[in-house]
Amino acid sequence: MKKKVLSMLMAAVMALSLAACGGGTTGSGTASTGASEAGGEKVLLVGLGGDPTSFNPDANTDDYAYHVACNLYSGLLTLNNNEEIIPDLAESWEISEDNLTYTFHLRQGVKWHDGEPFTSADVKFTYEKIIEENGYLAGDLAAVDTMECPDDNTFVITLKEPSAPFLSSLAWYNNSILPQHLFDTDEDWTTCAAATTAPVGTGPFKFVSEQSGVSITLEKNPDYFGGEPSIDKVIYVISTDTAYQAFMNGELDYLTDVPASSVAALEADSNYKVGCLSAGRRFQLCFNMNGEHTSDLAVRQAVAKALDREEISTKGTNGLQAPAYGFYPPFLDWAYNADADIGEQDVEGAIQLLEDAGYTKDADGYYLHLSFLVFTGGTYADCAKVIKSQLAAIGIDATIEELEEGAWVEKVFAGNYDMCMMAGFQGPDPDNMTNRVGTGGGLNVSFYSNTEVDDLLAKARVITDETQRGEYYKEVQTILSQDLPILPLVEYAGYYACPSYISGLPYIDTDVDDINAYNFSKVTINK
């Protein structure tokens, strides 16, 4: 169970959606020489913040594994850089009039990397295995009544009741189809060879080797159903806080986390291309609803009144991450409630709330002391420092603790914190709220539970009329604005960069929208 929880929480950090945030088209400077060609081969060097916990992407989910999985494996469906559902192993599909039966027509002639044929039986096996092992998709697959394989190229799912977000769930995360001939054993699916030393998929690149803490090497799959990649290899270089300098030195070709302070310079330099990831995700402050002080609504209300989101945006992100309003990102207009928000900063009102609730200042001049857990990297810590200053103005001392992803997950889910900050994609369907604020939701790090919210989310899930669904989600947001288990901070914006001689990276060349956003099958290096 612990492994399941950690997997789901780590998924929260994921950022998987494109927004048009500009790119470098003018300016001067000299791009680094790069290491994209070695021995006559075209090699893409990609920064990766850490080692994957497993090469079975359906078992131990983490950000690092996902990046690699997008090139090793394929899903039945996937999402492009605009968060649209597009074909992957399923070439097309139909949904019955009663919204219960989904018929997927699979690509023909697809082979696993070891030469074995891919068939509908692999799809059925994968989903059954996820249910059996309680993988991340198990909750969504709980809606399934039957799964059938009429022939090798057809897969049919029938649901117990309609599920509006069902296709989105199959396309988003932890959705890789696994080879039945390698995983249908008595071995643990997280430690068998196919999950550790010899992963086999149907994706555009094949596994070659892994050197822990150093690199992961993939080579092109000439039989890839989407067309043979033009580059020969992808090497994931394990790098942490040195990634930006490594990119500028030419030791990386694709930087997936450009420091906020360096974005403008790269955008202004024609030797580089810059892309931005933002829509559907934001920074949120989460309260531990079981905390000694944060379980008190008055404290949560006071913290909300202390926040100046414009200042957090300006000082914490150089203005690159816009202030966030409301209790769901506005990228889906039909599900967004603009009237549900925390209001403007009110320092005196915040202090009055604390005093009315019986809090008194200690010898240091604080009403209370709270822990504040954030991730290392990105703009998390910078935003947290601004928030710390704003809370100090109302007499709350926030102690910031910066943690690597795994340590953050362990501590937050254990409930060993008062406040934390998290981001993550909140789509592709607003049913994502179920994970974040539904009772027992895998991403509900606040331990929030409201039966009215649960009921509204359940109703929204089983109807297909968008307008009616939207009303339910708007009601949920109104309740959240009253209960305040979370607070909106700033909209996420993550910047990506590559030298101008590289093309075909979906988050940078946004017209590449017919593959997964981290699929490198269309990358070209014209150096």
Automatic annotation (TrEMBL):
Keywords: Signal
Residue stretches making up the Solute-binding protein family domain: 84-441
Signal peptide: 1-19
Pfam families: SBP_bac_5
Gene Ontology CC: one annotated term: periplasmic space
Single Gene Ontology MF annotation: peptide transmembrane transporter activity
Gene Ontology biological process terms, A to Z: peptide transport
Listed PANTHER family: PERIPLASMIC BINDING COMPONENT OF ABC TRANSPORTER
Protein name as annotated: Solute-binding protein family 5 domain-containing protein
